[in-house]
């Protein structure tokens, strides 16, 4: 497997994401921060985005032809290039290594098996930090983002405490309580990484994303929190809050953001019609 880690003696961070460009778009500033500290970053990638946005082809009939295995191939290559942009350690190991879970875009599962697979990776690599989408106070109810977040959340929650990371941070949250002390970004590096996703991001889109990352670390935002930090002892408390959503503000946010869509009507043609194997479920 071209992406698998060879050794894990360094301090490491797991960034758990559903799609190949999510690490850049949603966590670019965090990648920047941990790279600066010399951490090894593992992108735990749930799918290669076989349905994608197919930007340039959206209005044409070619969309369906490129979806599926073709787009997986394109995005796998794009993702590899994006992660190369972050550079290498002196021994030649990439600073950001992708570990693909190889689920299918739009059909990311949340079940015992998906949770167990993440736990096995945590036990093997023992990351100091785990970063994943917030599945509780979420601002993104995309099926894959929710199931990626749920899988990561329950993997950490149910793991033996000795494997608990030093920090467990959730992004895409409407209840942030933690800020990474980021003061600057490697603009050129992030730009190169974003540009690698050429099938998904337009030049204007990239400009906006980079502007956003810059804005996040600007002095004007010095106190702004972006992550929800979860403590081991918080799990029960969070679950109680989640079930009750005690404050009115939380309730409003929850119901406003809670969009769900039917997977069957959104992802056409079906994975089977595109020749994608969904037997892993
Ligand atoms: Zn995504």
Provide an overview of this structure.
- This protein has 281 residues and is of the alpha/beta class.
- 40% of the residues lie in helices and 12% in strands.
- It contains ten helices and six strands.
- The chain has a six-stranded mixed sheet with strand order 3-2-1-4-5-6, sandwiched between helices.
- Helix 1 (22-36) links the parallel strand 1 and strand 2.
- Zinc ion binds at residues 18-19, 22, 145.
**For the residues shown, what is the average pLDDT?**
85
Q: Helix and strand string, N-terminal first?
A: EHEHHEHEHEHHEHHH
- Which structural category fits the helices and strands? alpha/beta
Bound molecules: zinc ion
Shape: globular
User: What proportion of the residues is helical, as a percent range?
Assistant: 25-40%
